[in-house]
Amino acid sequence: SQQGEEDPQALSIQEGENATMNCSYKTSINNLQWYRQNSGRGLVHLILIRSNEREKHSGRLRVTLDTSKKSSSLLITASRAADTASYFCATDVDSSYKLIFGSGTRLLVRP
Amino acid sequence: EAGVAQSPRYKIIEKRQSVAFWCNPISGHATLYWYQQILGQGPKLLIQFQNNGVVDDSQLPKDRFSAERLKGVDSTLKIQPAKLEDSAVYLCASSPLNQSPRDEQYFGPGTRLTVT
Hints:
- The structure holds 2 protein chains of 2 kinds.
- Chain A is built from no helices and 11 strands.
- By secondary structure, chain A is mainly β.
- Chain B is globular.
- In chain B, β4 and β5 (44-50) form a beta hairpin.
- Chain B is mainly beta.
- The termini of chain B are far apart.
- The A-B interface holds A 2, 4, 30-31, 33, 35, 41-45, 48, 88, 90, 92, 96-104 and B 4, 31, 33, 35, 40-45, 48, 55-56, 91, 93, 95, 101-110.
């Protein structure tokens, strides 16, 4: 079953704008990760935030985590056409390093 | 370092036929995962190996799916017999056990299976 649900399901923005996508999950987690999937390619790890962290940055990416609301957000600043992809949140819920993926947000960045 | 390798990249079969997918993880990665990703959905874990032992196969349809990881390196996922609903991309991923970060998974390009 899907643990995480991303919102929105699809997002279309202009190049240079910021993109925000949200993830909600159901159970307690060890960490939450964001992955990107380009058309026809495998998933690529973007960023990991642990359950005791509230915010993390990596380049143009900013991730927040609110464990009281069981939610996370991914912000991509100054978007580029190359950011066009599907973005998935994934939660690590136990000690086995197994990930449960959400349903994804499809981002389109228009040139 | 070389990434996770998978073959074939594409496969088309008729229902009730058999199919096998192969995965070669990143060298030294003890943990290997097989995921099924149906179009428009996120990946769903089918089976997780640590070395050559199964950690989790709770979502593997064992009446038709099987997987093995001999010698703790390469892995094969088999479907026999295939059904129409097995049409999906099958992703293999690996992660290290004895180095930090342990949590990140490295994915291969996937095998796109079409069952007609």
